[in-house]
Amino acid sequence: MRGPLRRSLSSALATLAGLGLALASAACATPTVRLAEGPREYVAEDYDVVLRHWTREEELVLSDEVDTVLTATATYESWDFRWAYVVRYAEDFRLTVDQRRFLLERSLAESRQVHQFYVAVHAQKWAWSDLLADNPAWIVRLIDDRGNESVPVEIQAIKKPGALERSYFPYTNPWRRAYRVRFARQRADGRPAIAPEAKWFGLRFAGPQGNQELVWQIEPG
Fold first, then answer.
1. Could you give the dihedral angle defined by the CA atoms of residues 134, 114, 48 and 61, in that order, rounded to the nearest 10 degrees?
2. Residue 14's pLDDT is what?
3. Is 202 helix (H, G, I), strand (E, B) or coil?
4. Can you give the pLDDT at residue 62?
5. CB within 8 A of 74, min separation 6: which ones?
6. H-helix segments, the chain
7. Contacts of 91 (CB under 8 A, 6+ apart)
8. In what order do the strands lie in the sheet with 114-123?
9. How far apart are CA 61 and CA 212, in angstroms?
10. Which one, 41, 47, 104, 119, has least CB within 10 Å?
11. Distance between CA atoms of residues 90 and 96, nearest Å
């Protein structure tokens, strides 16, 4: 093969490879989220997409042991998520229009009071996944990029996840403990738990084995 032709072919292949990597990277990019309220137009079939959009998962691996000590998955039950959840729930349970409206209004009202997360964790040892233990192996905090850090006002253990949890949060399984973790939207000092100008917020799991963060990047504007 002649020199110029070889160089031209190599250049073309490099361009195609770069394009492939860019497309793969874009496909795997973590989506940004919007915290705005307002009506949504979801149908029950949209739920799985909305669930993925509001769910994050991370593993904490000790490099010296090459061992996963914590896997944490969480769904932020935002205004947007709650709307899709109620639509799916109403369809599954064949609720009347009035029942659906009541459930939606109650759920959206709660979202104005607390930041709520559905959380499932798997630790190196079963006892270490107990977030309600007297001396827990892990504590969880709500954080943002402005330095705000909030303690949960409630951690509710879901002791026996049933058909509802396993269907609506399919990362729930017998090897994980499931919780609902709630944080007040307003801190004790009056500041919002998530600053209005924050670029991201997240959950931090910290303990003697290390720390890991689940992050939701906020869409600008």
1. -40
2. 36
3. strand
4. 81
5. 55, 56, 57, 117, 118, 119, 120, 181, 203, 214
6. 3-28, 47-53, 79-92, 97-111, 163-168
7. 43, 44
8. 55-62, 67-76, 114-123, 177-184, 154-158
9. 9
10. 41
11. 8
Token pair belonging to 32: 């940004």
- Contact assessment for residue 202 and residue 216, using Cβ atoms and an 8 Å cutoff: yes
Q: Which long-range contacts (CB under 8 A, 24 or more apart) does 113-116 make?
A: 113/184, 113/185, 114/153, 114/182, 114/183, 114/184, 114/185, 115/76, 115/142, 115/182, 115/183, 115/184, 115/185, 115/193, 115/194, 116/76, 116/77, 116/180, 116/181, 116/182, 116/183
12 pLDDT band, cuts 50/70/90, is very low
pLDDT band for position 68 (cuts 50, 70, 90): confident
d(CA 152, CA 131): 11
Tokens of 147: 């330095």
Nearest to 35 by CA among 79, 85, 77: 79
* Beta bridge partner(s), residue 157: 179
Percent of the chain with pLDDT over 70: 85
pLDDT tens-digit series, residues 177-220: 999 999 999 988 889 999 999 999 999 999 999 999 999 999 98
pLDDT at 6 over 90: no
